């Protein structure tokens, strides 16, 4: 003979599958990566003892200040990310949860990821040189620019590469002695594109001494999220606009865009 369950007993029995479901979800791997602020590098200086920018065929000028490209570091495609880790990172301003496909668009194979990132960086460097020499109206057949940055992939340093070349070859100082950081892709025609991971890059920039951060205008809202104290955002859409903004900051004259 079956006895009748009380209300509390019914609730307890019904809750068991729900608890079990959450327990399984908490242990199951999810299609996300967890990212955090990565390294930055001054494109006007050296990285691991090697100059980032070298120029031959044209005179260069001595630069002041720094132009720092920024990165993020993400968990690998093979890393199992649980629901608990996702929730923890969600509430941590030093980390971000990103779709794994957005971080690794080329797939899960480590070799393919490395080849993809290397190709993206090479294309970004070529575009950065073209954009900078085009801005300066210099003949690429006479001026040879080499860019070297170890262990960094992807296209997001394009804007800073172009600015570094212009600062070395141009007539005026772009930094005004400041530490400037930023991110953004670049086209050969000088258009600046969005990159992702900007809130983490602003943290890396401020950690390494930057007081100004150049951000693609489309990502102003993201960059303003958890913006570190003492870091000024300057939105840009073109290489010319970025140069004009930096010169206005250096000279203390003219209008500087803001988010």
UniProtKB/TrEMBL annotation:
Database matches in InterPro entries: Lon_proteolytic, Lon_Prtase, Ribosomal_Su5_D2-typ_SF, Ribsml_uS5_D2-typ_fold_subgr
EC number(s) per entry: 3.4.21.53
Keyword annotations: Hydrolase, Protease, Serine protease
Top-level EC class: hydrolase
Gene Ontology terms describing biological process: protein catabolic process; proteolysis
Catalysis: reaction(s): Hydrolysis of proteins in presence of ATP
Sequence ranges assigned to domain Lon proteolytic in this UniProt record: 151-249
UniProt KW Metal-binding keyword: no
Membership in a protein family: Belongs to the peptidase S16 family.
Name of the protein described by the UniProt record: endopeptidase La
Organism, scientific name: Streptomyces fumanus
